[in-house]
Write a structure and sequence with these properties.
By secondary structure, this protein is an alpha+beta fold. It is built from two helices and five strands; from the N terminus they run ββαββαβ. It has a domain of 77 residues: Translation Initiation Factor Eif1 (2-Layer Sandwich), CATH 3.30.780.10. Bound molecules: zinc ion (ZN).
C-alpha cells in the first residue's frame, strides 16, 4: 500500500487512537463503526399516501429512526417489493404511487410493526 503522504511529516505509522500504540501492538477491542440498529420488532412504520403537485401520489413510510435503521437499504427493499421507484428524503421513504398494501407486507416481513393511514 502506498501512503499518500509518504516522505512527509504526515507519514507516521498508523497508531491506535485509544492507546497510542502502533496498530500492530494494540490490544484495544475493535472499534465499532456500525451504528446501533433498533430491532424492527420494536418499531412502528407509518404508512400514508400523500398527494404531490401535478397530481402525483406517493406512499410515505415514516416513523423510523434514521440512525436505528438502514433506511437506504430499506428504501431499496420497498422499491423492489412494490415494483416502483422511490426516494429517501428527510428520514422517510417515498414510493411513487399508492403501494400501502405491498409496502406494509414487506415491512411486516422484515419484522416491523405497521400503522396504515
Ligand atoms: Zn489501542
Amino acid at each position: 500500500m502506498t501512503r499518500l503522504f509518504a516522505g512527509t511529516p504526515w507519514d507516521r505509522p498508523p497508531a491506535c487512537e485509544g492507546c497510542g500504540r502502533l496498530e500492530a501492538e494494540c490490544t484495544c477491542p475493535p472499534k465499532v463503526d456500525e451504528p446501533v440498529r433498533i430491532p424492527p420488532e420494536k418499531q412502528t412504520a407509518r404508512l400514508a399516501v400523500e398527494k404531490r403537485p401535478k397530481g402525483k401520489v406517493v406512499t410515505v413510510v415514516s416513523g423510523l429512526d434514521p440512525d436505528g435503521n438502514d433506511l437506504a437499504d430499506l428504501a431499496t427493499r420497498l422499491k423492489t417489493a412494490c415494483g416502483t421507484g422511490g426516494t429517501l428524503k428527510d428520514g422517510q421513504v417515498e414510493l411513487q404511487g399508492d403501494h400501502r398494501d405491498a409496502a406494509e407486507r414487506a415491512l411486516q416481513k422484515l419484522g416491523y410493526k405497521t400503522k396504515k393511514r
